[in-house]
Design goal:
Length: about 300
């Protein structure tokens, strides 16, 4: 079972400047238009619930006295591997979101560390411990492992359930933990008052969606995208299925493949943490279903039928 974690830590290094201002989520939504309502395909992360606002020249994000500028983003891109910089420059909103996430999680982690007498740790360690604390009560039952095994038998070859049960439990528990952390991060904008420069966001949206995946989901047709990589056994098993689907659904459904190692930022934008993953969008570009692992053709066909594709 192949897993490919797409955490781009090179852009997560902004120091905490000041304590952010916490607000009521309902008040935030009533004050101004939100990123997620204006640009629903841009992010489902920490800035999805940020407010679009007119900010002083040069200021891209503001939360309380916290401020992020274009110069800050350029500095962060300069710290990333050379090969990754062109992707980051096309996805500046992604860079901004990671910086803001690091700042706000840094504040929460510092408060948690103080309460739990772990204040001596560095910020990265505090954040890791804090996020881990959010998932302490999670577990995976034998029934859950067996259900996953039954649906993904091709991923484990000739192995029996008893032979892979422990590995499956570890895998599924990791998935649960990742989902819990992602949900917590996604709600960041609901816990804090965050303003993003309206004009800057509009420009970055145009740049961010200039890729095959976003163009497909905004084409007015349903879309099924498989995100994977060469050398991943279940990913390679998906290749002939995708080619067959392209023929069967020509003109009806956009079927495409995204190589996550070549498009790391795009994959990160879509929250890909394990591969392969198949994401289904309706004709309006809204995500309606997501599956991790090998996905047989008959099950894909059934899922497409559920969203109205014959």
């Amino acid at each position: 079972m192949t897993r490919h974690t797409l955490l781009v830590r090179a852009v997560l290094s902004l120091a905490l400047l000041t304590i952010p201002v916490m607000i009521n989520a309902a008040d935030a939504q009533s004050i101004a238009q939100l990123v997620k309502s204006s640009y629903p395909t841009l992010t489902t992360g920490a800035l999805a619930s940020a407010r679009l606002a007119e900010l002083p020249t040069g200021t891209i994000l503001r939360s309380g006295q916290i401020k992020i500028t274009q110069k800050d983003l350029d500095t962060e891109i300069g710290k990333a591997p050379q090969a990754l910089r062109p992707q980051l420059k096309r996805n500046l909103f992604f860079v901004l979101e990671n910086k803001a996430t690091q700042m706000l999680l840094g504040y929460e982690a510092a408060d948690w560390a103080k309460q739990n007498k772990a204040a001596g740790s560095g910020q990265d360690d505090q954040i890791k411990s804090y996020l881990s604390s959010l998932t302490n009560g999670l577990s995976v039952s034998d029934d859950e492992s067996k259900a996953f095994f039954d649906k993904n038998r091709d991923m484990v070859g000739e192995a029996t359930f008893d032979q892979v049960k422990d590995q499956l439990k570890d895998y599924l528990l990791n998935q649960k933990r990742q989902d819990a952390v992602s949900a917590h991060i996604a709600a960041t904008g609901e816990r804090y008052g965050i303003d993003v420069n309206r004009t800057w966001a509009a420009k970055q949206y145009s740049a961010a969606v200039d890729n095959p995946l976003d163009k497909a989901r905004m084409s007015g047709k349903p879309t099924m995208v498989d995100l994977g990589a060469d050398g991943c056994r279940p990913c390679d098993m998906m290749t002939p299925i995708l080619e067959s689907l392209k023929t069967d659904y020509k003109g009806k459904v956009n079927v495409l493949f995204v190589h996550v190692r070549k498009e790391q930022i795009l994959a990160a934008r879509y929250g890909v943490q394990s591969i392969p993953v198949q994401v289904f969008f309706d004709k309006d570009g809204k995500e309606v279903f997501r599956h991790v692992g090998f996905f047989p053709k008959d099950q894909i066909t059934a899922k497409l039928a559920e969203i109205g594709v014959k």
